[in-house]
Design a protein that fits this description.
The chain has about 260 residues and is mostly helical. The protein has a domain of about 180 residues. Helices cover about 65% and strands about 0% of the residues. The chain is built from 13 helices and two strands. It has a two-stranded antiparallel ribbon with strand order 1-2. Helix 1 packs parallel to helix 9, helix 3 packs antiparallel against helix 9 and helix 11 runs antiparallel to helix 12. Keywords: Cell membrane, Membrane, Transmembrane, Transmembrane helix, Transport. Belongs to the AzlC family. Pfam families: AzlC. This is Branched-chain amino acid ABC transporter permease.
């Protein structure tokens, strides 16, 4: 056991640091996609960077620029509603992270900005309070810094490369969310919720205004989730040993695996 500043180095904290570094690098890489997509949707470089700096929730950011790209300025209300709906889950994360963050209003304000899927996932995967605390802060800071740098890079090259879909950058967001979601689909009920929401979104996208499919699909997911008509039965060939508020303790799933292809959400 060694001390490094205020952090006591143990096998647990060392593991948390490695997971944080891996997640930070993997997640930051997708900032390039967001930057390029945002400028392609009509935002300028500074507006794009402003979103990543102050909004800093990748799911909401991708939803916002996606709706704007589909419907222009007229889609503003739907874009805001979609972004707010996706970002609201961070409130639940904050409740879970409150004991980890500790006291002090300055610390809590900063923690509120860094409470995203990745920082919560790495933290809750740790087995000791010290490792949980290190995982949360280190992941949050690394993702924040990396995401903002790569957003700027993406925004700058987005103006140069033209059609981002030709390079597959428009598919990065969907792949990122699938990467975050897939390890959590350990039970039939979770699979039913995911399928119902996906089908609703796919059917509605061609016929309703941009942004509405996200809102309606989320409503369908909530309804299916609350009914719990399949219970907690595991899917065929899958086992689970429990779950946390973020669904991050299923057997065979690690923080790094969950965040591969992830965005700060």
């Amino acid at each position: 056991m060694h001390k490094n500043g205020d952090v006591t180095r143990t096998p647990e904290t060392s593991g948390a640091a490695r997971a944080s570094l891996a997640v930070g690098i993997a997640t930051a890489a997708y900032g390039v996609s967001f930057g390029a997509l945002a400028t392609a949707a009509g935002l300028d470089v500074w507006q794009t960077c402003f979103l990543s700096l102050l909004m800093f929730t990748g799911g909401s950011q991708f939803a916002l620029v996606g709706v704007i790209a589909s419907g222009g300025v007229a889609a503003g209300p739907s874009a805001i509603a979609s972004a707010a709906l996706l970002g609201s889950r961070n409130v639940i994360y904050a409740l879970r992270m409150s004991p980890v963050v500790g006291s002090g209003w300055m610390k809590r304000i900063l923690a509120a900005h860094l409470t995203i899927d990745e920082s919560v996932a790495v933290s809750t995967a740790q087995s000791t309070p010290a490792a949980q605390r290190l995982g949360f802060w280190m992941t949050g800071v690394l993702v924040f810094v990396g995401w903002n740098i790569t957003t700027l890079v993406g925004a700058l090259i987005g103006n140069l490369i033209g059609d981002v879909s030709a390079y597959g950058l428009d598919a990065a967001a969907a792949a990122a969310f699938l990467g975050l979601l897939w390890p959590r689909l350990k039970h039939l009920q979770a699979q039913a919720v995911a399928v119902a929401a996906a089908v609703a979104a796919a059917l509605l996208t061609p016929v309703v205004a941009p942004g509405l499919p996200v809102i309606i699909a989320a409503t369908v997911a909530v309804v299916f989730g609350l009914t719990n008509w399949l219970g907690a039965r595991p899917a065929t060939g899958s086992t689970a040993t429990g779950s946390t508020a973020t669904g991050s303790t299923a057997t065979g799933s690690t923080a790094t695996g969950r965040a591969e292809g992830g965005t700060p959400s």
